[in-house]
Amino acid sequence: MKKLLAYDLPLRIFHWLFALLFVTAFVMGKTVDDDSSLFSYHMMAGLSIGFILTLRVVWGFIGTVYSRFSSFRLKPSELITYFKDLFTTKTKRWMGHNPASSFAAILMFVLTIGLMITGIYMSHPAYHELFEELHEIFANLFLIIVIAHIGGIIIHHLRHKDSIFLSMINGKKDPVEGQSEISTSKKLAGVLFGGLFGLWVLFLSLNFDTNQRSLTFFDTTFQIGEQAEDQSEDSGTTRDNEEEHEEHDD
Ligand code: HEM
Ligand code: HEM
């Protein structure tokens, strides 16, 4: 059976970067001591997810048809039917996202925003405990959705034998009656997406201070979280800054 093009290149690049950054941020969050300077890479991975999500949101309005949010199946009744069919008959197939992956994607996007807000403002003395607690809940919920998402892809493949997982690699799916394929994979936009991400990584590597945990943007410095403790003894600037903090605390 000839496969048809469903997902453009920017969407596929976004998908794998999003997955990779989530796994990196999650594993580092759970395994690296938050006082260590290595933890800054957890923050950078988290900030990078926010960056690519911003690009994805723009693409959700101007991308090809199945990348657009308008093609997401977000009716609760369709989701219920989808789950009923999953355990009884065969689920309906879609060229774009099915109801379960549409809901999962939106939930993951919302949780990303929640993780960004709680992560960035966690060091705020008034909200520290609340944001720390929420951050952990959001991260764990995210993990549950990812596990369900991967489980869903496996069950779908077992039912339909259509290798749906390949659609996030080569963009192609088995044909669905009445639903057309996209005419272009938007290679140039894909290259632009990759290029913008590369620039973002360069920007972070030049402007994110892993000791101070601050990001400098056009002469303005944003403090993101508390400073790393294991670096504070070998850097004069860090110690100066620590004293400043103590003064503030007083
Ligand atoms: C940490 C791991 C993962 C995360 C966070 C993740 C996240 C997502 C997101 C956000 C979407 C929606 C894409 C969009 O519209 O922007 C999606 C769709 C999809 N993902 Fe993943 N994903 C992960 C792992 C995987 C794996 C391991 C596979 C398969 C091998 C996979 C296959 C797919 C497929 C096929 C779709 C489209 C589903 C459909 O057409 O209904 N994902 N994923
Ligand atoms: C998708 C993005 C993110 C994920 C999946 C994630 C995940 C996690 C996880 C799993 C933990 C450990 C929670 C625990 O079990 O105690 C954690 C802790 C933390 N995260 Fe994130 N995070 C993300 C984004 C961010 C961002 C953007 C920042 C800040 C810029 C941030 C700052 C922190 C801090 C400061 C902690 C330490 C909390 C503590 O004191 O225990 N995170 N994160």
Q: Which key phrases capture this entry?
A:
three-stranded antiparallel sheet, 59% helix, disordered C terminus, 6% strand, globular, two-stranded antiparallel sheet, 250 residues, binds protoporphyrin IX containing FE, mainly alpha
Provide an overview of this structure.
This protein has 250 residues and is mainly alpha-helical. Helix content is 59%, strand content 6%. It has 7 helices and 5 strands. It has helices at residues 9-31, 40-62, 76-87, 99-120, 128-160, 187-207, 236-249; strands at 4-5, 172-173, 208-209, 214-217, 220-223. The strands form 2 sheets. The protein has a 3-stranded antiparallel sheet with strand order 3-4-5. Helix 4 (99-120) packs antiparallel against helix 5 (128-160). 25% of the residues are buried. Residues 232-250 have low confidence and may be disordered. Bound molecules: protoporphyrin IX containing FE (2 copies). One protoporphyrin IX containing FE binds at residues 11, 14-15, 18-19, 22-23, 56, 97-98, 101, 105, 108, 146, 149-150, 153, 164-165, 167-168.
